[in-house]
Specification:
The chain is an alpha/beta fold and about 550 residues long. Helices cover about 40% and strands about 15% of the residues. A six-stranded parallel β-sheet has the order 3-2-4-5-7-6. Strands 11-10-9-12-13-14 form a six-stranded parallel β-sheet, sandwiched between helices. Strand 19, helix 24 and strand 20 form a beta-alpha-beta unit. Helix 1 runs parallel beside helix 7 and helix 17 packs across helix 24.
Amino acid sequence: MTKEMSGGQAAVEALKAEEVAHVFGLIGSATMELFDALYDAPEIGFIGVHDERTGVHMADGYARASGKPGVIIAGQNGPGATNLVTGLGQARAAFSPVVSIAGMLSHGHLYRDAFQEVDQQALFAPVTKKTWTAPSADRVPELMREAFRTALSPRQGPVQLNLPRDVLSGQAEFGPMQRPDDYRNMSAPAGHDADITRAAGSLAAAARPVIIAGGGIKNTRGHAAATALAEALNCPIVTSPGHGDAIPFGHPLNAGQMGPRGNAVASRLVKEADVILALGTRLGFNSTFYSYDHINPEAAIIQVELEPTAIARFFPVAQGIWADAPTVADQLTAALKTQTDRARADDWINGFTTERAAYLAERDAGAVMTHPTQPSGLFRVLRDVLPHDAAVTMDAGTLCLQATDALNYHTPGSLFTPLDFGLVGFSFACGLGIKCAQPDRPVVSLMGDGGFGMTVSELSTAVDHGLNTVTVVMNNQCWGAEKAYQRDFFNGRYIGADVSSPPYDKLAELYGARGFRAEKLNEVAPAVEAALACGKPAVVDVAVDPDALYSFRRDSFKHRGG
């Protein structure tokens, strides 16, 4: 049977077929037919945002937390659409399956310098996996299916569908909407038996084996497979930066995050290993800076990746396996049971265990607990006060980057960062999306005062929709990363580095949220505990020493002799 509908109604029917539960968006005149159809779809919760960029961050966080696509609708063409670009660039760098939908000029107005005209097809191509513009109303369900399929296929990522006004208002006959099971691949490839046997032999014979768990483990919730393999090998497992939650913090073989932004123990392991199993990681910029300064040039690398172009892209490998990372981990664990020549590497693992314990003890003992508040002291307090099941979101910037491996991620799937895109203004909005996906889970967002100022208007969204997250604003009254570079490499010639921010705790109250302030370190724990328990969106404004700055990318300024 067929039914006559508008393109806007067909788009909503397609969302229902995909079992979409929540849509983020900002209404606009270009998409009124679509929003009017949403009015008749109570099974889809609409969360109105204040800016399309932050709406994408919410959809991004929702997608990462739920494992389902996050949907954002920019109701207006032109400026409404251009506001999506930064968020989609971030989602693309994070391989996050965001389905972005935007209104667009009617076909008859294209190329006439019409009101709010911009070439949206060209605009979104660089920041998405793929961009489409629907040519007619009858094609809307087909392109919606294609958008969801593309966003979810390896490697996942954001897509953009432009829906012109005449397409949304146009009428057509539509049959029943296809369900995802009818047209999407639901399986993941395994490694070939010969490849598994060879890799298992190399790992079993290694004296200093290390597993690097990346996004291919984190995003698939493949921690059980990865840790079982580490236990079978009796070898340490490190995580790539931004994926410190890929493995539970408390696992005895977990060394934490490696690389230029990781900790010294995990980084040393990778620099000294003789066999490295890169399990679902590109060994890319944040892990290595593309340099053998952060990875042993003599090591035999076995790289397992679902994206074939990632294998051996930055470092030569002894063996590449094009397959799903947790599936290969399970295969290797099974294969190791048949190995008779296994090097237990007792000295290697015993040395790691001792060094890891000493590092964690020193991390606590070395925290500066005096006034003014130092990052190390703040992070120690947060380690103690944050619930073990909390989801933690971060921004870019010096304070948040220092926190990446300074907190403990007890529950896999609990760290959400903009690390690959280095985006300031991400954390708070991302946390709202996570809270939408996991309403019973505590969500804590770390931000600098500059980044929070970019996105503070979404406090209205949080209050209106009961998205009760806690945002800890590490307030140092400056753009910390850039000020650190100006201090260390440009003789303290500061320009544009200082930020004048309002008291965010008081601003939160004006929005109808709760506000807390911690002028001293001993006020942080009670403030965060009260914020977690208050039953409203909450902001904790923490005064942090403005001189506690750190230059992360010192390699970028080697030419200045710093």
